[in-house]
Amino acid sequence: MWNVLLSFSGLVALIQLVFLPFFPESPPYLLLQKGNKAGCLKAMKQLWGEGNYQTELDDMMKEKAVTKGTKIMSVLEVLKEPSVYPQLSIMLLLLLGLQLCGLSATANLHESIIPYVSLGVALSEFISVIFCSSIIDRFGRRILLWGGFLLMALILVLLEISLLL
C-alpha cells in the first residue's frame, strides 16, 4: 500500500494548487519588492479585514529605507559569508539526516545500487536548493509554488498510472 501513501502527498499538492490562487501575495513583498502600495493595502485588507494599516505601512517603509543600500547577494556570495555558516550547517545536517534515514533501503532496491540512489537523491536536493534560492527573487514565491505543486501533482499522477499499468 506504499503507492497509496505516496499518492497522498500528490493529493495534498493538488489541493494546495487549487486553493493557492485565492490567497493574496504577501503585503511586504508587494510593497518592498514590487513597490505596489495599493496592492499591499488590498492584501492587508484581504488577510486581516478592514482597518487602518498605516502603522504597518510605515514600518514596512522604514524597513525599505534601512535595506535600500543593502546589496542583494548571489548564492556564491552567501556561501562565502561567515555570518550564515550556522544556518548553512543546520540545513546541511537536515539534508544529511534525510540521507541517513534509510529511505533508499526501504524502496526494495538491490543493495549494490543503494549508495548510488542515495548520492543521486542528495545531489538532486543540493541542486534544487541552489537553483530555487537563486530564482526565488526573480520570479516570486507564488509562481514557484504554483509550478512546484503542479509539477509534483503531475509526476505523482504519472507515477500512480505507471504503477497501475
Automatic annotation (TrEMBL):
Keywords: Membrane, Transmembrane, Transmembrane helix. It is a multi-pass membrane protein. One of its GO terms (biological process) is D-glucose import. The chain crosses the membrane at residues 6-24, 113-136, 143-164. It is found in: Membrane. It holds the Pfam family Sugar_tr. GO terms for cellular component: plasma membrane. It comes from the Eukaryota. Residues 1-165 form the Major facilitator superfamily (MFS) profile domain. GO terms for molecular function: D-glucose transmembrane transporter activity. InterPro entries: GLUT, MFS_dom, MFS_sugar_transport-like, MFS_trans_sf. This is GTR9 protein. It comes from Urocolius indicus. The lineage of its organism: Eukaryota, Metazoa, Chordata, Craniata, Vertebrata.
